[in-house]
Amino acid sequence: MRTLRILLGCLIAGLVCWGRSHAGLPLPSLTFYGLFADEYGWPYSSDDLVEVDVDGARILSQKLGSANGRDYNYVVRVPYDSGGRGGDYNHDVVAPGERLTIRLLDRSTGKTVLSTNFICNLLAGSVVRLDLSSGTDSLQDGLPDSLREWIWDALGDGNLFEPARVRATADSDGDGVINLDEYRAGTDPANPEDLLNLEIQQVEGVESVQLRFFTVPGKTYRLENAQWTEAGVIVNPARFASHPTGEANLREVMGTGRGISIFVPTSGDPQFLRLVVVPRPSGGRILP
Ligand SMILES: [Ca+2]
Ligand SMILES: [Ca+2]
User: Fold this and answer.
1) How many Å lie between the centroid of ligand 2 and the Cα of residue 272?
2) Cα of 191 to ligand 2 centre, how many Å?
3) pLDDT of 41 strictly over 80
4) CB neighbour list of residue 91: distance below 8 Å, 6 or more residues apart
5) For residue range 50-106, what is the model confidence (pLDDT) as tens digits?
6) What are the domain boundaries of the chain?
7) CATH 3.40.309.10 fits 14-134, yes or no
8) How far, in Å, CA of 220 to CA of 209, rounded?
9) Which residue from 75, 112, 135, 212 has the highest number of Cβ atoms inside 10 Å of its Cβ?
């Protein structure tokens, strides 16, 4: 009898929750993930909160994750249904046509740091990447104004800062890499000692070259090789190994905040290789 009561209790609780949570037909959840970064491009700390609102009502709040070893620091799964609400509907889920807000909340101040909202008309089960940065770009050349000010404070002539004094295409610290490329690579555009630099050396006794470079957490690196053909230059992803004698079956490596070595087999023919920081999509994108 006691077991039956418990079962009945669970069943009734389940029915109550069902009635309150879903007004329409439950659909596969929506998944949102991406990187919340500050005005300098650095991921926010894991003490902050990711929150989701539907038409202004909070439905979800969770701690921000860590970007260590990966290029995103949050993943939220939002319950989805087909809509068609009744009078007892509350916003525990999102339905097509409702406004969805995703924001980053500073836990210590309770203030919203970053926020985006949109009318939700996604396919059920969609996985969407949303990257948000707190930087403004008044010149619209890809460089956040705060980073321009950082460069100006470190290298300027003491006059008042104006965004137009530091442009994305300039190489302010003279290390050979323009400010925009340093921003994309996560290196300091005001420090000539900090840049994405590739050291190359032949591995003794093995038909392989070692490529060593310093990596930045949250960045993904890809190696590419160029081939000259009658139709022009063709650039393709190059495969590499994690050890001198390992199988070259890797295409990308994630930044760790430390130096990383990758190994490329040599065949005797000249190879033209370059290291690329994989560009992150701006705004949101729906993955297939
Ligand atoms: Ca530079
Ligand atoms: Ca630099």
Assistant:
1) 24
2) 4
3) no
4) 54, 55, 57, 59, 98
5) 999 998 899 999 999 877 667 789 999 999 988 875 545 555 889 999 999 999 999
6) 14-134, 136-194, 199-277
7) no
8) 21
9) 135
